[in-house]
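Issue 218. Parser rejects a valid record. Input:
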Amino acid sequence: MNFFEYQDQARRQSRWLVLLFFLAVVTIIVVIDFAILVAFGVMDIEQQGLLSVHTFQSNIDTLVIGAVVTTLVIVLASLFKTLALRSGGGKVARDLGGIRVEADASDPLRRRLYNVVEEIALASGVAVPEVYVLEQESAINAFAAGFSPADAAVAVTRGALEKLDRNELQGVIAHEFSHIFNGDMRLNIRLMGALFGILVLSLIGRRVLRGSYYMGRSKNSNGGAIVLLAVAVALVGYIGLFFGRWIKSAVSRQREYLADASAVQFTRDPDGIAGALKKIAVYSDASYLNTETEEVSHMLFGAGEAASMFSTHPPLNERIQRIDKSFTPQDLVTLASSLQRRDKSQAEQAEREREKTRQRGHGFFDADNLVDQIGNPDFSRVLMAAALAASIPDVINKAAHSSQWATEVLLYCLLDKDEEIRERQLLLIAQNLGSDSETRVRNLVEAAPVLGREQRLPLMEMAIPELKRRPPDQVSKVLGVVKDLSRIDGQVDMFEYLMAGIIGQHLWESANPHSVRLAGKKSLQQVQAEAQQVIALLAVNGQRESAEIQHAYQAGMKTLGMVESLEMPDTEDWAGMLDRALPLLDQLKPADKQKLVNALIATVMADNRLAVAEMELLRIICLVIHVPLPMLSRGKDN
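Output the parser choked on:
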């Protein structure tokens, strides 16, 4: 199952979640109405019986009011919780006591965590998510939260930082990235909102019970009925708890197996995630958290608390055995003492491989399996990401991770090679953002006058997390400067144009995560002209000779299955074409979006070579339509 099939499955599970939620609400309404009949319809029992038609008819107004009030309480509570989560995954992490990890953290364990998250994000082709540590939790656990990759947050416990080595931590983070890419994260946020509405009745019932104790002792004739109703509401809360755990179990257990498998493919190291699971099994505090985990248990890497019924996670031994076929439960005692030595050896081997990749300066590009690695890249991409990060000058790298320099790093990425145009761009920066900002950009230019084209997109992904923490008015001003910088010479470069656009898109999505849609319902037939235009633009910008351009265009159209539309459109107004085409292509349903990405890959690979310009243009086009293309190998620039 690939990235697009996972998205389809997530959409189907969302519909399944709605159905289960509806069933839970109906059951709760029936129980509440039955309690109302018992509490206020007692006068009819002796003559007609409690469940007689007459009893219902005589109390119909009360029952309708009870049903409406119950529904409103559930829906409004769910809506309230969902709105509270609109600020993104960081909100969930902070509510659980998470402390944000800065890119320049001095704590070596925090720094290692940030590096691992950053490597996997860069290898996957997405901006680095916010990173949090649950400092008060000694157990081994983690989770990813958010509506989309733009507002995602990854959190791990302090126990995971201290007890897991780098390989095991990498396996856990890769597991969480699988949830980010495959739609699990968005589904989990919706599940939190829906379940809160169901569980809130239990809280109301308990409060009413406390308050009605004195009312029951008073002379109020309805006091007993109110107490009875409060007991019913509290019991309904437990019914809600039953449904909530059932829904979470139905939605999350199988997806944990899938995320484990994705993590193995991502890191190419089954011992990493298997080692983390084994340590959860060995340590006494396992993965159980001190905080209340009822709302978030389905989001965690391991079970948040001990549960015998409707567990949100498969049994640990089964998860381990699926990864490590030779494992038996009796091995845990022996493995506990040997894991540390074995994992240290593997870490050293991984570092040697990483060093070899740095010395070679390139990885590999396999067009046939690239689509399968979207949202699930293999370990070679992680090595390439580490090598590319190491190739960025240290001054630039530190600036990208600094809250004070993040804006200037983005502007630096958009500077033109021509000195005259660059001076005009620096003047524009001084006029709009001040001389201090211009001075910082000049310092970056002096530190590294020439920035490799393949380094610009990763630098953007590193710097955006710091920039989106700025006040909205400042972010808006920066976006205006970003757009002006890409147009200042009157001859806009397509890559710079799209890069400016993706910066704006990402910042908007991080501020409006609830409005982000990773896929739509359009078919390729509905957007045939737009697909044709983007393939033509990619062919024109990746090839030099007219015959090569036509060959690349035809290769893309044939892959798309549109042989009858081989005549290439005019690409003179490329900016207008992109502005019209990409938003529509972003609305393709996942299966058709996969066909489009295959066609784009076929276009750039028509000549069996991949230049840096083609590679980065392909990645940023895919990023605009919410397809995080993994890091590709470096080719030779044109």
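Fixed in the parser; the record now loads. The chain has a mean pLDDT of 79.
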